[in-house]
Amino acid sequence: MNNAVFGLTMLVVGMGGTLATLFLITLVIYALAAFFPVRPGDPEEKK
Amino acid sequence: MSGAILSGLGALFEGVRFLLTHGGPNAIMIAVACAMFWLAIAKGVEPLLLLPIAFGCLLVNLPLSEVMAEGGVLKTLYDFGIGNELFPLLIFVGIGSMTDFTPLLANPRLLLFGAAGQLGIFITLLLALALGFSKEAAVSVAAIGACDGPTVIYVSNMFAGMDKIPTAMVGALAVAAYSYMALVPVIQPPIMRLLTTRKEREVKMPSPKGKVSKAALIAFPLVVTVITGIVAPQGLPLMGMIMLGNFMKVSGVVPRLANAAENEIANISTLFLGLAIGGTMAGPQFLTRETLMVFGLGLVAITIDTVGGILLGKAWYLLSGGKVNPLVGAAGISAYPMAARLVQNEGQRWNKHNYLLMHAMAANTGGQIGSVMAAAIMLSLLKGLGII
Question: What's this model's pTM, rounded to 2 decimal places?
Fold first, then answer.
């Protein structure tokens, strides 16, 4: 594989993969908030 | 008798003779070590890392030094904890223990800034390839864009262990990474001002309303570890160790282990890692054209990271009808919590009633996850392409 193809593959799949994975984690965080709602006694968000 | 005395005296002056005849590169590196001492002590630039790195650099460049020879103290440290990636990973346990993901869990969408803040990695990779670096060297240089010293050392040392890049390059990459991380307060503000309008910088963002349950905080590191393990198993040691440190902290049941990770383990690993990395900076191997290019490309990487984050912020500003301050995007890098504080300061500079800190902290912790995820994905891609 030549350097140009390698670089572009890394750019597209690497950046795309990072974005997609973080988007997935974002959805998971929303799901966590839904599954584990705040209860009395949970720590307050730090200001 | 007199001959023996002269031979003995000659042996004592062997070092001076070496320095005068072959010691040019060593002398330059000793000067570099002194510059690092000055930066660490007088300017407070990443002293925890720069000071031991500089001392290791000094030790290895003294004439006829054998600290990096087989059995030498720095070589032993290198083999013990760098050659097998142990020290960077132990530092990651400490970093995880020091990181608070609460702002991110309260405002999850800001995690996407952590992806935009990795743009510099991939653009720098292209640039390094164009400049003639090998694929492995280009990936190592690009990792500086992660703004994360242990990640850079982990990735580059993996290639050094395979003899794909020179060992001296690991030292150059580590010094470049830590230097630019320390220079984030110098590098970022001009870019923030250049790419945003005054109106954009003045946008007030209300404090996040959502609270975070303890159960969600505990589940988060486990879930991220599992996702990383499935998507990019090559980077699992990196993400796994960060999340282990965080899990110990948020679980609340092992305060002694969390404290040890945050203090003793992180401190000892940092000292040994710094010394061993300094030991790779022997003048004759370190002073090459590629090493100098590493420093130039590192600056490009961190600049493009900032640009990527701010451009996503500007897009978000437009799509949200002006509700998102684009400055927050600049915090989507791994320099934690420095980048978040910079965004807060820059926001208040243009609007005294603006409190962007919690949003910036969310983006900043997103940047930490994003940088490790980008490195993990790069390593898994390299594995998939048959390069490692």
Answer: 0.86
Nearest to B126 among A11, A43, A47 (CB): A11
User: Structural domain boundaries of chain B?
Assistant: 80-384
Cβ of B212 within 8 Å of Cβ of A33? The answer is: yes
Handedness of CA B294, B295, B296, B299 (dihedral sign): positive
Predicted confidence band of residue B8 (pLDDT cuts 50, 70, 90): confident
Q: Which two tokens stand for residue B339?
A: 């980048």
Using the CB atoms, write b or e for B9-42: b if 16+ within 10 Å: eeeeeeeeeebeeebebbeebbebbeebbebbee
pLDDT tens sequence across B86-123: 998 999 999 999 999 999 999 999 999 999 999 999 99
- Rounded to a whole number, what is the distance in Å from the CA of B273 to chain A's nearest CA? 28
Q: Residue B154: CA atoms inside 13 Å, Cβ hemisphere, count?
A: 27
Exposed/middle/buried for residue B165 (C-beta within 10 Å: 0-12, 13-18, 19+): buried
